[in-house]
């Protein structure tokens, strides 16, 4: 079975606050194309299509229908290895420094590129992607795929070779592939991972709505200008053509002359003034539509078009708030507010919706961060916990977790760890555990004196906590060892 998105006939997508990417995707959904086909036809990445479909499903615009595929999915034999992106051709613009190729190691140029590409691609892909298998692949297929890909990066393959900085990269690749195998061949761990993937996609879909607001606002403003210009062109089209104006002027002049002759008893009229001559351009120019009038008409048309768009997006935002889709509400309110910058009430509603969107995202990012931390993916966990803090600026635990994960990640930014550790202590000054975290961050940042002060304060706060005492003792040993180096 495979999943195919189909439009919900009971939903009017025109009333939904869709991003430009989502609108493009909706136009391509025909009930037969799968996610890969939609990615090709829209120019979006497969991950972007997946994230957009998750949001469209939540909005009620589409439903995912399982349809019969091939009777049995092909077993990932020799061909599976080529499906893994880790063995795909090098990126045209690789995300690594070309100088890394110059290191004196016992690896040929092509192998170096393969290792560097694979290492820097690790965090881009899901475990399914890494092994080149489908989310419906069974345990046997996962194992077959693993044994087709993993040997290319097994450390034993490079036994006794001089590898330099490539050695830890090879080990990291093999470790991630093995983790993917272990997770996907365990029913319980795979279920947990699938839940994580679903949450990840939801988070990305919500983020994409917020991130595309500027682009969407520019498109709406362009539509407003186009509408106003259309009204102006229509007004110009109603203005009389030069020939008609000239004819009316000449006709009026002839009537005046006839009346004058009658009043003068048929006497000869004095010579016509230059201004009365139909050959003078000034006659036509005087009959033209006043430029100031046209400017006023354009300004009125512009104001009308803006009001209509403000009403439209405000209604969309209100509907989004009612269904608790705060990301969409934030997007719609911000577009409306950009069209009416002097509307204080609208600006306040936009700020509130943005706050609710961040708070709503926080719960999803917390689930994502907790899973990443359990998997010891410290860099990703630090980023996810950081997004929790954006929605929950007064959550001391989330700030503490950012500091902890940052310290555990290779090459972590210790200034960032100290910053979040301090904030956690500010928010919860009586929690000894947070002070120990801050002390550890101080040690990593080379601020031993500040670290000792935090440890002393932690001991005062929890004098009978044996576990905490042990942690404090270990931290003091760590500080002493660092100082002696």
Structural write-up:
- This protein has a two-stranded antiparallel ribbon with strand order 1-2.
- The model is unreliable at 70-82 and 273-287 (pLDDT under 50).
- The chain has helices at 20-28, 35-42, 46-58, 109-121, 127-131, 139-149, 166-184, 187-211, 213-238, 242-263, 281-287, 291-322, 326-339, 344-374, 378-391, 396-408, 414-427, 432-444, 448-461, 466-484; strands spanning 2-7, 62-67.
- The protein is extended.
- It has 4 domains: 2-67, Arc Repressor Mutant, subunit A (Orthogonal Bundle), CATH 1.10.10; 78-211, DnaJ domain (Helix Hairpins, Orthogonal Bundle); 213-358, no CATH class; 363-484, Tetratricopeptide repeat domain (Serine Threonine Protein Phosphatase 5, Tetratricopeptide repeat, Alpha Horseshoe).
- With 485 residues, it is mainly alpha-helical.
- Helix 9 (213-238) crosses helix 13.
- Helices cover 66% and strands 2% of the residues.
- The protein is built from 20 helices and 2 strands.
- The longest helix has 32 residues, at 291-322.
- The two termini are 60 Å apart.
Topology diagram in text:
Layout: E1 2-7, H1 20-28, H2 35-42, H3 46-58, E2 62-67, H4 109-121, H5 127-131, H6 139-149, H7 166-184, H8 187-211, H9 213-238, H10 242-263, H11 281-287, H12 291-322, H13 326-339, H14 344-374, H15 378-391, H16 396-408, H17 414-427, H18 432-444, H19 448-461, H20 466-484
Helix proportion range: 55-70%
Which residues sit in consecutive blocks of at least 5 with pLDDT less than 50?
Answer: 70-82, 273-287
Radius of gyration: 34 Å
Globally, the shape reads: extended
Number of strands: 2
- The helix-strand sequence is EHHHEHHHHHHHHHHHHHHHHH
What would you call the quaternary organization? single chain
Number of domains: 4
Q: What structural class is derived from the secondary structure elements?
A: mainly alpha
What is the topology, as strand order, of the major beta sheet? 1-2
